[in-house]
Every structure is written in C-alpha cells, then in structure tokens.
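We emphasize that the prediction below concerns an isolated chain of 125 residues; any contacts that depend on oligomerization or on bound cofactors are therefore not represented. The input was used exactly as deposited, without trimming of termini.
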Amino acid sequence: QVQLVESGGGSVQAGGSLRLSCAASGGTFSSYAMGWFRQAPGKKREFVSFISMSGGITDYADSVKGRFTISRDNAKKTVYLQMNSLKPEDTAVYYCAARSSGRGTYFSFLGYDYWGQGTQVTVSS
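Result of the prediction step, given as a token string:
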C-alpha cells in the first residue's frame, strides 16, 4: 500500500508555469506506474499524463501535449508535473495516482489503485 501527497498548486496568470509534486510513502515506489488526473467543477475526472515505472514511457492528453511534462525520481519517491503555458481551461484540482502492473488501462482513473488528496490549480486571464 502506498500513500500519495500532492503539492505545488496555486494561482497563476495565463501563460505562467507551475510544477506539481507528488510524494509517495509506504510502498515500493518503483513498482508503480504513475498518473496525473484533473477535475474541474461540474466536470468528470480526466486523464492528464502517465509515466511508466522507470520513466521510459510517457503519455499525455491531447489538451496538454507540448505544454506539460511528467517526470519521476524513484530515489526521492516523487513524481512531478511541470506545467507551462498555462491556460484558464487548465483550472482544476489535480490528483496524482499510482497504478499496479496489470490493472486496467493507464488512461482511465479506474486503472489506478491509490490516489492523493489533490491540489488546486487556478489559471486566470
């Protein structure tokens, strides 16, 4: 079992940047693929990004491709989401999640075992 805690959210103007962090504890971090999801008020949770156990494979939602970068540091048991060129439509609560091997699909929230509490990102224009 693993516990996840997100941090780094805040309020920025359009075009700005934020770096989200997700710190893991209580498990073997390198045994989990990781994902970022977000949920805006009145909308369903949506996939943002994925990174494999070693960091060699990444994927992004089309809406953030080219602007966001996911990375992980297994020694620090932390996954990051660097968000550049932020837009108002990026405003949401951002969640990190851990995925066990063989569980569902990585682009669906149903494919993850553990979730953090979320961190608010607000982008104004």
